Amino acid sequence: MAFFSTWTLLQGQYTRAYVGLGANLDAFQDTRFSDLQLTAVGPLPELGFRYVDDRSFILFAASGSAFLSTQPGTTEDQITSLSINTRAGYLYGLMPGLYLGGTWDIFDYVTRNQDGLNNGSSFYHTASDIFASGKYLIRAGENWSFEFGLDLGLLSFTKYAPSFTANLDQKAIDKGEASFQDESVRSPFQLKYINTKPIGKQLYIRTHAELFFRRRWSAAYQWKMRTFSDQKGYPVTMAGHSLTLKIHFISRSK
User: Fold this and answer.
1) How far apart are CA 135 and CA 85, in angstroms?
2) How many Cα atoms occupy the beta-carbon half-sphere of 19 within 13 Å?
3) CA–CA separation, 10 vs 54, rounded Å?
4) Which is more confidently placed, 205 or 95?
5) Which domains does the chain have, with CATH numbers?
6) Which of 53, 58, 93, 201 could form a disulfide with 13 if both were Cys (CB 3.0 to 4.6 A apart)?
7) How confident is the model at residue 4 (pLDDT cuts 50, 70, 90)?
8) pLDDT tier for residue 2 given thresholds of 50, 70 and 90
9) Residue 99 in contact with residue 93, Cβ under 8 Å?
């Protein structure tokens, strides 16, 4: 009971830089072509920085993950996946411990290759996402503190090729411009066929909880889900759970 009786709003100023290593449970489903849900567990390295005072919360982070799994119902068709994410955020302190603002996922990239699908074996999704963000910070005793966060996607700039079909950008297919000769159609990094997805065309939500112990250690949990439907009634869903242990090699407070 003494632990809970000492809970207070986290105030003051601190700067932290950290490196983390964890695990990510990834789930993917594209109902345009299959009702199968692909899941896999992989390592999750992360590097980040944050500065917090009573008026501002500033963050930068970069993370990546890799997976190796098999097609459900088979033991031979391997699925390999790689994801990369870089983000920055600024939130304004409305009151001690409560911050509201925005986060920008500058670069979010997922690629997936599935054996046995021939020219449809590769899927990619490249995005840059803007979120409305909120964070709540609280201290519990001398050595413990908590951080809770929520991000709601407002606008995304995306380019993706559908799974279980030719590795061509979906917008190019919809416009009748699919071509194996046009690099801008096939490359996930060309800007010609960028799609704009505001909140009404996509639901992207992310939650975050982190427990800090003393000055050097923390454990973070995150859940995220992105779902959209370019063809009515056939959603594409990407989701994941992650758990990360972090060591803060820079930790200064005032």
Assistant:
1) 20
2) 1
3) 9
4) 205
5) 2-248 (2.40.128)
6) 53
7) very low
8) very low
9) yes
What would the two tokens of residue 198 be? 């505001």
- Give CA–CA dist 200/197, Å, rounded: 8
Give the 3-state secondary structure of the chain. Answer: CHHHHCEEECCCCEEEEEEEEEEEEEEEEECCCCCCCEEEEEEEEEEEEEEECCCEEEEEEEEEEEEEEECCCCCCCEEEEEEEEEEEEEEEEEECCEEEEEEEEEEEEEEEEECCCHHHCEEEEEEEEEEEEEEEEEEECCCEEEEEEEEEEEEEEEEEECCCCCCCCHHHHHCCCCCCCCHHHHCCCCCCCCEEEECCCEEEEEEEEEEEECCCEEEEEEEEEEEECCCCCCCEEEEEEEEEEEEEEEEEEC
- Burial status of residue 196 (CB atoms within 10 A of its CB: 0-12, 13-18, 19 or more): exposed
217 alpha carbon, distance to own chain's centre: 22
Considering only 73-77, 112-116, 120-124, which range has the smallest mean pLDDT?
Answer: 73-77
Task: For 204-244, write each residue's pLDDT tens digit.
Answer: 999 999 999 988 999 999 999 999 887 777 888 989 999 99
Determine the Cα angle at 63 with ends 61 and 68, to 5°: 170
Distance CA 122, CA 31 (A): 16
Cβ atoms within 10 Å of 167's Cβ, excluding its own = 20
- Token pair belonging to 217: 């250690």
What's the CA gap between 109 and 34, in Å, rounded?
22
Token pair for 122: 């590769």
